[in-house]
């Protein structure tokens, strides 16, 4: 009897098989190209160097693409590109303003009073022209770029560096002015480079150390704020002028079109070591106690260096050289 039942079950199963399992595949989709920046109001005369930055997530031939404003439609050049690309009527000027590749286009004139910029893919045959992305802005601020994803104007070259973690490193904490020899000894030990940043700089002792380093072939750069509280003192102007005259690269960062309102960071990169202070580079005052930390790490110093280099480029492009500082920058003292 059991065999008869089993045979019946097998026969039933063969007549009504279970539905086959369906496999689901996840297909990765590439986002469409989009406009990520519009720079319509450069500082240069007649807005020379204005540009539009478009992101192409995958390699794309630009022959079918155009940028259009409220007046003109401009064809993009016959090139295959990927990533973020700037399109400009003056690519030689745009190259000096940013690190992205700049392609040459003709006829695009962006309005400072605001308009809409469309990114279009041209249709052929029965296919109509498609607007892939559209960006609108109003009242362009001079020297700033419109970022549609954040709906904000940002100074050209401003960076947003994330908080990063480094590998294990030796760190040394010390207190100023109790241990003034620590930063000086660190600077004296430089073999290849010194990148020194501060809000103000009035220490003649540190200045002599930097000159000595430059004289033995170390690349030395100093970057300071152009308008500390009370203005640049006569002492600071004298110290910075002396550094510049003796071969140290010195720049002041700030001015009407600066990326940031203040340059308040106080640190130095010496070869592969980074030292961060909470005190300005000035002679010690017993009533002013500050903490500082020095770290030696293959990953820490390069990150600090990149931040310094970014701000250095800003100073070179938008500030005055500190060699013979302008009298109006120097506070009466």
State the main characteristics.
single chain, alpha+beta, 6 helices, disordered C terminus, seven-stranded mixed β-sheet, 333 residues, four-stranded mixed β-sheet
What does this structure look like?
By secondary structure, this protein is α+β, with helices and mostly antiparallel strands. It contains six helices and 17 strands. A seven-stranded mixed beta sheet has the order 11-17-16-15-12-13-14, with helices on both faces. A hairpin with a 4-residue loop joins strand 9 (144-147) and strand 10 (152-155). The longest helix has 19 residues, at 300-318. It is elongated. The termini are far apart. Residues 4-13, 311-323 and 326-333 have low confidence and may be disordered.
Give the quaternary arrangement of the chains.
Answer: single chain
Mean pLDDT equals: 80
- Low-confidence parts lasting 5 or more residues at pLDDT below 50? 4-13, 311-323, 326-333
Computed CA radius of gyration, to the nearest angstrom: 30 Å
Order of helices and strands: HEEEEEHEEEEEEHEHEHEEEEH
Please provide the count of β strands.
17
Q: Can you give the helix content as a percent range? A: 10-25%
How would you classify the helix and strand content by structural class?
alpha+beta
What is the number of helices?
6
Backbone shape = elongated
Strand content: 25-35%
Largest sheet: 7 strands, mixed
Quote the distance from N terminus to C terminus. Answer: 115 Å
User: Strand arrangement, largest sheet?
Assistant: 11-17-16-15-12-13-14
């Amino acid at each position: 009897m059991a065999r008869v039942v089993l045979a019946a079950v097998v026969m039933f199963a063969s007549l009504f098989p279970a539905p086959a399992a369906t496999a689901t595949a996840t297909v990765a989709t590439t986002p469409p190209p989009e406009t990520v920046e519009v720079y319509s109001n450069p500082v240069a005369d007649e807005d020379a160097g204005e540009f539009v930055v478009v992101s192409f997530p995958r390699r794309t031939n630009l022959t079918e693409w155009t940028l259009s404003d409220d007046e003109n439609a401009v064809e993009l050049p016959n090139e295959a590109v990927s990533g973020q690309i700037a399109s400009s009527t003056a690519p030689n000027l745009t190259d000096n303003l940013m690190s992205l590749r700049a392609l040459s286009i003709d006829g695009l004139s962006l309005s400072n009073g605001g308009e809409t910029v469309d990114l279009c893919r041209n249709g052929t045959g029965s296919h109509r022209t498609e607007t892939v992305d559209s960006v609108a802005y109003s009242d362009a601020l001079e020297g700033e770029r419109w970022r549609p994803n954040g709906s904000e104007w940002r100074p050209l070259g401003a960076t947003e560096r994330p908080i990063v973690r480094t590998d294990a490193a030796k760190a040394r904490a010390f207190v100023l002015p109790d241990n003034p020899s620590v930063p000086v000894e660190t600077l004296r030990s430089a073999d290849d480079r010194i990148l020194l940043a501060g809000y103000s700089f009035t220490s003649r002792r540190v200045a002599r150390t930097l000159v000595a380093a430059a004289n033995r072939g170390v690349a030395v750069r100093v970057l300071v704020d152009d308008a500390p509280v009370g203005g640049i003192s006569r002492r600071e102007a004298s110290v910075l002028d002396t550094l510049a005259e003796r071969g140290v690269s010195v720049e002041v960062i700030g001015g009407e079109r600066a990326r940031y309102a203040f340059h308040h960071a106080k640190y130095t990169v010496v070869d592969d070591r980074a030292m961060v202070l909470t005190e300005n580079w000035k002679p010690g005052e017993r009533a002013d106690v500050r903490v500082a930390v020095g770290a030696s790490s293959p990953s820490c110093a390069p990150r600090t260096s990149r931040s310094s280099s970014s701000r250095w480029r800003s100073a070179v492009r938008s500030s005055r050289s500190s060699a013979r500082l302008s009298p109006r920058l120097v506070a009466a003292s």
